[in-house]
Amino acid sequence: MAAWLARARAWRSRLLTAALTLLGLLVLTFFIGRVMPVDPVLAIVGPDADTSTYNQVAAQLGLNKPLYVQFGHYLGELAHGRLGISLLTGNAVSADIARVFPATAELATLAIVIGVLTGVPLGVFAATRHGGWGDNVVRMISLSGYSVPVFWFAMMGLLVFYAWLGWAGGSGRIDLEFDGVVRPLTGFLLFDSAVTGNWAACASALRHVLLPACILGLHTMAYISRMTRSFMLAQLSQEYILTARVKGLPEWQVVWRHAFRNILVQLLTIVALAYGGLLEGAVLVETVFAWPGFGQYLTNSLLLGDMNAVMGCVLVVGIIFVSLNLLSDALYNIFDPRMH
C-alpha cells in the first residue's frame, strides 16, 4: 500500500511539473511573439493602409491592449478549447492543425520505424565488434547521417530517385490524379486509401512518402545507432556479461537476452524523444518535398507573424514532448525490474 501511495504521489508531481512546463512554454512563446519584428496587422492591411484602418484592425485583434490583458484573454479562450483564428488561412487554428498534423505524423511514424529497425541492429553490431572494421563502418555511416544536413539528402534524393530513376513520387503526398479522391477518415493517406480499398491511391501515396521517410529515417538511424552502441558498450564491459560467457552461453544470448535487455529502458527514452523531434522538426524535409504538414504550417505562420497559429503549434509540440516523457516514465515502470 505504501508503495502504491508513493507512486501516486510521484505521478501527481510529474503531472504538475508537466502542466507548469506547458504554462511556462506558453508564456515564453507569447511574449517573444509580441516583440518580434513581424507586424501581423501590416500582414493583413498591407503597408499602404492608413492609420485609422491599421488601428481598427489592431483593435479587432486585441493588439492595442496591454500584454498581460492579451495573455489573460488567450488563456481564457484556451480554457474553452479555442486556439483562435489563423491569419494565414482564416480558419480556426485547431481545424488547421487537425488538417496538417496527420501528414507529419504519417511521415514521422514511418521514419521512426525505419530508424529503429536499422539503427538498433547497427548499434548492437558495432558494439559487438568494438574497434574492428564493422564498428568503424557503422560509426562512419552514423557520423555521415547525423552530420550531413538533412535538406541536402532531401534534394539529392529527389534528384536521383525522382528526376533520374523515376522510382519516387516527387513532391506532395499523392499524385494529382488521386488528389481529393480518397475519403478522409483519419488523415493518414496510406491507411485511409487501404481501408477504402483504393489500392491505386495507396500505391501512389506509398511512392510519395517512402523517400522523405527514408531520409528522415537515415537521420534518426544515425542517432539511435550511436546511442545503442554507447549503451551496449557500457553493458558488455560489466562483470555479469563475463560471467555469462564463462558459463558457456551462446554469444547471441549474451548480447540480446542479457546486455540488450538491460539497455531497453534507456532506448525507450531515446526513441520517444527522437519521435517527438520528428513530429516537430521535419520542416526542412517538408519544405523540399512540398509536404503539406505541421512543420510547413508552423514556418509559414512564423513568417507571417500569425501568433495564434504559432501559439497553437507550440502548445501541440509541448504536449507531444510532455506526453512522450510521461510515456517513457510509464514504460520505465513496466520494463525496469528495479521498479518492481
Explain the overall architecture:
The chain is mostly helical and 340 residues long. The chain folds into two domains: 2-79; 96-339, MetI-like (MetI-like fold, Orthogonal Bundle), CATH 1.10.3720. The chain has 14 helices and no strands. It has helices at residues 2-34, 40-45, 51-61, 67-79, 93-128, 133-147, 150-164, 189-195, 199-236, 239-246, 251-281, 283-288, 294-304, 307-335. Helix 7 (150-164) packs across helix 9 (199-236) and helix 11 (251-281) runs antiparallel to helix 14. The chain is globular, with a radius of gyration of 24 Å. The two termini are 13 Å apart. The model has no long low-confidence stretch (mean pLDDT 84).
Keywords:
single chain; 340 residues; mainly alpha; MetI-like fold; 2 domains; 0% strand; globular; MetI-like_sf; transport; membrane; transmembrane
The CATH superfamily of the largest domain is identified as MetI-like
- Report helical residue fraction: over 70%
Largest sheet: none
Number of domains: 2
Dominant shape:
globular
Report the mean per-residue pLDDT as an integer.
Answer: 84
**From the alpha-carbon coordinates, what is the Rg to the nearest angstrom?**
24 Å
CATH architecture of the largest domain: Orthogonal Bundle
Q: Helix segment count?
A: 14
> What is the name of the CATH topology of the largest domain?
MetI-like fold
Low-confidence stretches: none
Strand content: under 5%
Give the H and E element order. HHHHHHHHHHHHHH
Distance between the termini: 13 Å
Q: What class, by secondary structure content? A: mainly alpha
How many extended strands? 0
The first-level CATH class name of the largest domain: Mainly Alpha
